[in-house]
Amino acid sequence: MGSIIPVVEKKEFLRGFLQHYELKRRECAWLLNYLMSDDELMERVHFVERAASTPKALVISATGVDTVPFSFHKFKHITTDAEKAFHDIRLNQTEDIYIELHFSNPKMYPPYLAVLEDNPYLPENEEIAQVHQRMAEDLLEASIKSFRKKDLHKRIDQALDALDHHTFMQLANELKELEAER
Description:
Radius of gyration: 28 Å
Helix content: 55-70%
Low-confidence stretches: none
Protein name: UPF0302 protein AB3N04_02030
Organism: Alkalihalophilus sp. As8PL
InterPro entries: IDEAL_dom (IPR014957), UPF0302 (IPR011188), UPF0302_N (IPR014963), UPF0302_N_sf (IPR038091), Virus_scaffolding_prot_C (IPR027393)
Strand content: 5-15%
Mean pLDDT: 90
Family: Belongs to the UPF0302 family.
Order of helices and strands: HHHEEEEHEHHH
Number of strands: 5
Shape: rod-shaped
Strand order of the largest sheet: 1-5-2-3-4
Pfam families: IDEAL, UPF0302
């Protein structure tokens, strides 16, 4: 997954975040600073909501919110050991890392909103994609049906002009069947 948020912006956000908010566990600040020290790693960092649904997630909390201080999720395995998370990140530098941050009033903190991305692993996104696909299919079907109707009207007119009663009846029946379809 390619990053749509520039690395510079992510680093700037994290620096400001670490200055404005005190994290519940200091190891989290150390882990975030490690990520900021490597531009290639930062390219693979994505700030999302509900990160636990992603293949590899860090969930980090600041003081003042009633959430778990830290958790690392990888393919349904969860640990609260920041050192294990660090080693996994260090050993698997080509994997995307999804970070969920908990702090007071995140929706009122513009730097956070600037780096927040859609979570591609949320089931709702799949459902929305399926709805959009069905709408596109319906539109395609309607377009094809409209084209066939116009073509039949044109051919019916031609049969009438040629006084071809047999072709007219055949095309009129086709048109009735087409209009009877859903």
